[in-house]
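User: Please fill in residues for this 272-position structure.
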């Protein structure tokens, strides 16, 4: 769990950056507030959406009074449905926002965490780490063009963002990790998301809410055990995605090798 930090200022229009694509409809339910939403407000939103955890208990958000480790935090959510949430804290509020927008994948990641943390052996650490990475920094690339994901996976940045730029009209990046949303409040060039690609029909334009069925498809992908380690997700500098930063309309934007790093090739072992 992140360390406790000093209270932060509430921003009514927090979802202005394009990285909040898919969250705008949900964000508007909080624009009438002059201060941070109370846990009761978040719980009412969860109840209205019939949020359930992996053991089919209703999800609610309760004030976090004491610090707790990851094991206790995840176990509490799985066994009680109660999500410890600090007030006046962007990280925790945005975590609640993802729960409200993607409840099935959040419930699945919670179950994956608890199962992995209860195991012994090296598999435990790798799967739990993968779930943590996706929970904090995850994103999903949806669309009909698997080649786009392959280019990104191999760090062919100009191929994906310049040569295939028109493809981003029918392929879209949606953020799932609340730590990435937190960074989007004050974005910077080196922001990275760890991405899962899901084939999806072309949407044409982004929507203010996630496409119907996406949350379920994401959860099923994790439930299938297809993701076993952090390396199963590919790293993406998110501001390079067309529309995320006006500057990336210029192809030289991608010449910044400190952000758009070349793919590291494995060195061949010399023959003995």
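Assistant: Residues filled in for all 272 positions:
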């Amino acid at each position: 769990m992140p360390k406790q930090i000093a209270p932060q200022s509430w921003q009514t229009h927090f979802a202005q950056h394009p990285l909040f694509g898919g969250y705008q409809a949900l964000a508007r339910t909080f624009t009438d507030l002059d201060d941070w939403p109370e846990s009761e407000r978040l719980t009412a939103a969860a109840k209205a959406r019939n949020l359930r955890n992996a053991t089919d208990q209703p999800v609610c958000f309760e004030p976090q009074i004491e610090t707790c480790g990851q094991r206790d935090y995840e176990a509490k959510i799985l066994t009680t449905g109660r999500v410890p949430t600090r007030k006046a804290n962007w990280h925790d509020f945005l975590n609640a926002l993802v729960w409200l927008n993607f409840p099935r994948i959040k419930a699945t990641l919670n179950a994956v965490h608890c199962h992995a943390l209860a195991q012994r052996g090296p598999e435990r650490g790798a799967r739990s780490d993968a779930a943590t990475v996706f929970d904090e920094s995850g994103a999903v690339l949806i669309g009909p063009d698997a080649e786009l994901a392959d280019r990104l996976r191999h760090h062919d940045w100009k191929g994906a963002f310049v040569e295939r730029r028109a493809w981003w009209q029918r392929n879209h990046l949606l953020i799932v990790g609340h730590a990435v949303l937190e960074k989007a409040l004050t974005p910077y060039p080196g922001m990275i998301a760890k991405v899962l690609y899901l084939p999806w029909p072309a949407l044409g334009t982004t929507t203010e809410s996630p496409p119907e069925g996406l949350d379920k498809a994401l959860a099923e992908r994790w439930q299938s055990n297809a993701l076993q380690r952090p390396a199963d997700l590919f790293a993406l500098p998110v501001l390079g995605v067309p529309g995320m930063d006006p500057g990336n309309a210029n192809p030289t934007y991608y010449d910044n090798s400190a952000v758009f790093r070349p793919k590291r090739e494995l060195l061949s072992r010399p023959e003995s």
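For context: The beta strands are 60-63, 82-85, 138-143, 172-175, 192-199, 234-237.
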